[in-house]
Task: structure prediction
Amino acid sequence: MADRLRATTRSIEGALFDVIVQAQASGRLSDGRGAADLARFLVTIMQGLRVMGAIDPDRKALMASVEVALTCFDRARVRGPPCHKITKVRSGVLGSSA
Result:
């Protein structure tokens, strides 16, 4: 089971890494932080949200945590849906209503 979880986590992290690299290359996201570090951070946040959602599925509290986590990205250089447009966190994928 641990091997499967590790492989899944690495797969998600790799997908996020690819998206972050593309966003940095296009100027949509500041390259002030390493793509690998940001991908690992997002996986950690997503896993924490899953745990906290299972313990206390208070949407408002979870969304507040997402807002705080997203401040780690250089908001001045991020172009895309604002944090409040994020509508769901499911299976390690953030969905957007934009």
About this structure: Residues 2-96 form one domain. DSSP finds three helices and two strands in the chain.
